[in-house]
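For the sake of transparency, this paper describes our internal protein records without simplification. Because each token names a local backbone shape, the row as a whole describes the fold. One such record is reproduced below, unchanged from the form in which we store it.
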Amino acid sequence: MTIDKAKQLLEIPNSSKSQLVDCLEDLGKEYGYIQGMTIAGRRDLVSGRKTLAEIQSLIEQIKHKI
């Protein structure tokens, strides 16, 4: 859901800074979780999730919007 929320916030022209920062924190947690599971060899636990590159792209877009 974090990914969808981030995409929605990027589409809203007047997203509040606090919403963007909260979303950025959530994306960072999601990125860390997927990265950790991948490093641990447990990609199967996160197979339905977005790729790290997709999450990184959203993070960059939100940072630019802030």
Observations:
- The helical segments are 2-11, 17-39, 52-65.
- The chain has a mean pLDDT of 87.
- The CA atoms of residues 34 and 47 lie 9 Å apart.
- The two ends are 21 Å apart (CA to CA).
